Amino acid sequence: MKRIAPIDIAGGILVVAFLALLPMFAASNYLTGVLTVCVIYGIWASSWDFMSGLTGRENFGHSLFIGAGAYTAGFLSSIWSTNPWVSLPLGVVIAIAFSLLVGFPTLRLRGPYFALAMLSASAILQRLCLIFWEYTGGEEGIYGLDPLMKNPLHYYWFVLAILAVTVIALTLLAQSHWGLLLRAIRGDEATCQAAGINVTFYKIVSLMISAGFAGLGGALYAHYQLQVSPPLFSVVVSITVIIMVYVGGIGSIYGAAVAAILLTLLTEMLRGFGEYRLWIYTLTLMLILFFLPNGLIAPLWRRLTERLR
Amino acid sequence: MTDLLEVNGVTKRFGGLTAVKNASFTLKKGEFTGILGPNGAGKTTLFNILTGFMQPTTGTIHFNGELVRELAPYKVVNRGMARTFQLTRPFVGMNLLENVLVACMSPRASEDKDKEARASYLLGQVGLGGRDKEPVETLPYGDLRRLEIARALATRPDLLLLDEPFAGLGSSEIEQLAQLIRRLHREENLTILLIEHKLREFMALVSRVIAMNFGEIIAVGPPEEIVKNEKVIEAYIGKTEEAHASA
């Protein structure tokens, strides 16, 4: 299949190196913290893009997987006091279990069922957290998770490395024969069937992969915040992730990651504007999506590097 | 020769409308059969039922001795029954090679280890050789039909179902495509079932005709008998004399 172009590899290394060195210039825990959140959003956005961007089946409840990973970490680390490193693999497993629960009955159908089921499943989980407050801590959530690393800068580098691995793994998959099938499903399911392809199988497995990385991101986020609370399951998180992917250029994966980092940084930088910050943020997004329906990051990168390919 | 396909009492009702009524026929291995009938006779519905895209209301379909009714379309393909669509449905945004590659990923093609080489070879087989990297968007209709056939061949079918392959093509394109289909039948040991409106090309290609009208099979036989069959003349040729003369 297609190989990743050298210019893309060079660009990727440059961006990761820049992000890794950024906290060194302005040594503040605040900046490191913001960048950690930026990078975790990058994991969430690129994992959404892999399934929904490639197959065209929009997932309106990615927060289900994010929250599942985060709450798994919360229960394990805070309530059952397990080693924090156990959270990461188990967060992945639980998120994948949820993807099967929703994906299995709805991905065999065409139409909006999958999108709606994801949206409701995440909303239901958010409610359940409040209803079973004795176990989940209700509105306040679960406190007192153990950090994975003492030094915030080391943790930031660790999360950044995981983002890099996520983007590389998902990009390689997207450019393999597997990714070709996912793009074919986006094009025409009936033709895929006529080509002898088990469309449902490929959609479910791609959702499992997407959920696994989102759950990992959720667990990483929980061990950064050292607490988890119901808003992690909220529609706002899901929609934010989708917007990031659209700004990044749908189906590009790396674009989603870069857009997630930039948009999270933008919200932080706009804090100075107080009440007006949401206005500015929303207006920026509307302008980008209106004038650049194919997104900003990936199309721009392709254009800049056209001659070097 | 053994029966490759055995259709028994297949009926399809859409509410009050009976699109296919009690259709029964068999196809022998290596045969080249055509389904003839005016618009709305139920030909495409029958195709959709055979390939699993629709389920019959009643009736059974056996393929290679195995019951295929209620199998999903992709499973039917992987049993060796591939189809093309009347309206070609390429994957836009992909090049010719990638379009065929998708079908090379089907379980039935699992023995073709070098998928790219296989897809490229098939493009050559249907007369699209050396154009692997071309986008499908710019392809003329006749070439899209060839691409459909290449994609169907990638699943290594025993039975190939062609849904109006000549519709919308010019006469020189039709002649070339007919040659390709004839060659595939001869050289690849394919059993072919074809739906077509263009009577002249149809009669020249097939060795046996199943004539349908209003969802019912009204006659089965070699082309020279079918054209003399009174029921067929009444249902089809009588009504579309002008179209026949100009075809």
Supply database-style keywords.
heterodimer; A: 309 residues; mainly alpha; ABC transporter involved in vitamin B12 uptake, BtuC; two-stranded antiparallel sheet; 14 helices; 2 strands; B: 247 residues; alpha/beta; Rossmann fold; 4-stranded antiparallel sheet
Structure description:
The complex is a heterodimer of chains A (309) and B (247). Chain A is mainly α. Chain A has one domain: ABC transporter involved in vitamin B12 uptake, BtuC, CATH 1.10.3470. Helices cover 75% and strands 1% of the residues of chain A. Chain A has a two-stranded antiparallel ribbon. In chain A, helix 1 packs antiparallel against helix 7, helix 2 packs across helix 12 and helix 4 packs antiparallel against helix 10. Chain A is globular, with a radius of gyration of 19 Å. The relative contact order of chain A is 0.19. The mean pLDDT of chain A is 93. By secondary structure, chain B is α/β, with parallel strands linked by helices. Chain B has a domain of 149 residues: P-loop containing nucleotide triphosphate hydrolases (Rossmann fold, 3-Layer(aba) Sandwich), CATH 3.40.50.300. In chain B, the strands form two sheets. In chain B, strands 6-7-8-3-9-10 form a six-stranded mixed β-sheet, sandwiched between helices. A four-stranded antiparallel β-sheet of chain B has the order 2-1-4-5, covered by helices on one side. In chain B, a hairpin with a 2-residue loop joins strand 4 and strand 5. In chain B, helix 3 packs across helix 4 and helix 4 packs across helix 5. At the A-B interface, helix 8 and helix 9 of A face helix 2, helix 3 and helix 5 of B.
